[in-house]
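Quick one, T. Sequence first:
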Amino acid sequence: MMPSGQNWLNAAMETLSKEGFQALTIPRLCQKLRLTKGSFYHHFKSFSAFKQDLLAFWEKDYTQDIFDEIRDVEDPEAQYEMLFNLAFEKDLAVDLAVRAWAQADDQVKEVVSKVDEIRINLLTEMYQKSSNLSQETARNYAVIDYTGYIGFYSLFPDAPDSWARDLASIQTRALLSDSKMTGGKI
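Structure tokens:
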């Protein structure tokens, strides 16, 4: 039985997580799945088409699906808590590998920039709702929050989830408290 294109994408995500983007080659994926190049080309016209599908899958799985799940939560703090929990369920090594790949590939860089903007925009909305901040001020809090999250995993990729969750919780509570108390005024 021929595997679906999704099997190739799942294998690629695992390869990204465990071996990095440099290992993401057709021969490596064929070896991992114990399939031939013909099977790969049955699902994808080229590696470029595969890469495009893989990036779309990453964007959907790591961003859009999460946001779709939390979009209807009215309370911004409950929404943030749900976002926080869903984000920590993902394999953050994949996110780091895609970010590293973006340093070497303009197509990947474009998708990462798009995903970052989507994520920052959602956080901006959450800060606006929770603290009645202006768009610009809410975006500043969102950028601080998001860069703290990305920065933590860039510095400590093997950190235990419990430590990461504790630090992210402290950061978020501090930012939400400050945004409510000061209204973003310096």
